[in-house]
Predict the 3D structure of the following.
Amino acid sequence: MISIYKKEMHAYLTQMMGYVFLAFLLLIIGIWFAMNNIMGGTANFQMALSNTTIFFFILIPTLTMRLFSEEARQKTDQLLFTSPLSVMQIVLGKFFAAVSLFLLATGVSVVLPLMINHYADLPVSQVVGAYAGFILLGAACIAVGVFISVLTDNQIIAAVLTVAAVFVMFVMEFVAHMMPTTTFASFIFVIIIVAAVIAIWYNATRHVIATLIFAALAIGIAGGLYLFNNLIYDGIAVRALLWLSVFSRYDNFLNGVLNLSDIVYYISFSALFVYFTANVIEKRRWR
């Protein structure tokens, strides 16, 4: 894993894209710092970080789009996948390299709140919470970008799909509040989710009989609950989408609240997409 990590970090620091990411992220944070803290005369630096997350759908693709798609385009992925390294080591090496560059830019930005603290009372707990959430949220988005990068050999397509994915993650909270709350609409939503889970199950196992048994059980349970106690489904679509909303969980961090459930959620979300990436490669490796 270390060799992959070093290789990717060397690529970031010797190619233009890495410096474009560093410059763009620091520029956005700097602009919000100037607008909110200098011109606005406030010590709440956490708002600069919060506003910067709006631009993750542009920032993250520049960081992740080449990680696997470039290897596939240059046909060097076969050499990589036949190396003694495990698939998970390869994925983690690339993922941690991208996160490290993100951390580097985030670390440089710490100079700004330190400047505020020299002249005013900085809300330290809120700023620390904002930075913790900023890093966890960034890592979650990077994991999604890494997963999308492994699906295509075209960097532009990887970038566009990552933009779309991060944008959907960003607007999910707004979509949740627009969802119908009737029990039938919520039941249909649950069936769609169940169908997606069944598809993932089949994609992971490729076992038709096991998938059919799992599908029958899942759909049977969902249908049975609707028939015997449909109030369970009341507003479930809204609650589910709010629970899945990655960006909405950042609000607690902005208030200086380091909630263990939010931290575990972000780490689990990142780990899940790292696993998905490794799963895709594993299947490709044995074709």
